[in-house]
Amino acid sequence: MTQTAPVPAYLTRTQERALALTIAVVTANAYYIHPIIGEVARAFGVGEAEIGLVPALNQLALALGILLLLPLGDFYSNRRLCIVFVAAQTVCLGGMVLAQDLVLFTAASTLLGFVTIAPYLIPAFASKRVAPERLGQVTAQLTAAVIFGILVARVGAGIIAEHADWHTVYVGAFGLMAAVTAFLPIAMRSEPAAPKQSQARYGALIASVFTLAAKHPDMRISAAIQGLNFAIFTASWLALALHLTSPAMGYGTDDVGYLAGVAAISVFTTPRLGRWADKVGPRKARLTAAAVQIFGIALFYPLGFSIWGVLVPLLVVNMVGPTIDVTGRMTLFTLAPEIRTRLTTSYIVTMFVGGAIGSALGTAVYDFGGWGGTCALMLAMSSGVLGLALHAERRWQRLQA
Where are the transmembrane segments (predicted)? Predict the structure, then answer.
């Protein structure tokens, strides 16, 4: 007789909010450096190109961690994995706080990225523990927590660094992670043990991520678009922080932090634009968003010499940038359910590889060509997004004909 696994009890509203808070705190760790990157560079006595390796390696390690560690959720308890990896993040942040040179700081930041998989495990954990009629609501709540974590990290880091120093930012982040590590076992109820799988099965699962990616060109196009899109995101914020805090501009890190607050607009616009994408189709919506984005990016250079002027392109990009991601994910959700997780793994890995490239290129190009060089880089990447989005839409139309 086949034994049926016990159904886990539903999460309470308090537990749902605690999980959302966990995602926000865990996600924030990768983004504290955005407004304070110039301060960190000066503290370690390095240039813009060198300090760009810190966020770049963090993003690359995150991509590698998603590829190698996220599939463990099919073999072990999601609760146990989250607790272990959140605790590991806390240890890595402690290493960043104690680091006395750039090499150790970068090493700790890189390891931090590698073990940052809780934001991708928690939604899977929660989806099995909410009533079916509330699944969308809870999923949206957890997704909004990611945006909120990025927003608070960038705004808070800029303000704290201006009134204290950049080191205080990471001391505070360590305290938040220690608190999350302590209460996470309570927020995540125990779950039935996952069936054990053989190591060979795990290896085959990892290999199938690449096999499936090779078989689905639509996924590869969507992943490439989001990789470029996320590269624009990281390059723009890192270069903007260096630009505005340079002696020529003279703004403080708190000003950069306040400026990062414009990202809050995406919390309100993304759900509405997502509903619009449901009506017109994800590929058409993505093409429109890409066209609007390139218009916004073209405004960065002429308006980028005033903190008030740069608000215009930032608002445009923060309105449509997340929509490009949402519509890309929508193209995956039309595929067979049994392969969506592995295709999403490829998509997310490509996204963070793009983010790493954007981090490295954004700071290196700024070091070489200043604000104008970085704006040209962003315009070139945005042209790539638009070209690929147009190709995807035309390809889809041919398939439907």
Answer: 18-37, 49-69, 81-99, 105-126, 138-161, 167-188, 223-244, 256-273, 285-301, 307-326, 347-365, 371-390
Phi–psi pair at 4, nearest 5 degrees:
-90, 130
Per cent of the chain over pLDDT 90 is 30
Output the six-digit token pair for 7. 């159904």
In contact, 157 and 33? CB cutoff 8 Å? yes
Residue 346 pLDDT more than 60?
yes
Q: Encode pLDDT of 226-258 as tens digits.
A: 999 999 988 988 888 888 888 888 888 778 777
- Using alpha carbons, select from 322, 224, 20 the residue that is nearest to residue 141: 20
State residue 250 phi and psi, 5-degree precision.
Answer: 80, 15
Instruction: Please report which helix (H) or strand (E) contains residue 267, including its range.
Output: helix 264-280
Q: Return the DSSP state at 246.
A: S
pLDDT of residue 385: 96
CB 160 within 8 A of CB 260: no
- The closest of 140, 136, 126, 184 to 8, measured between CA atoms, is 126
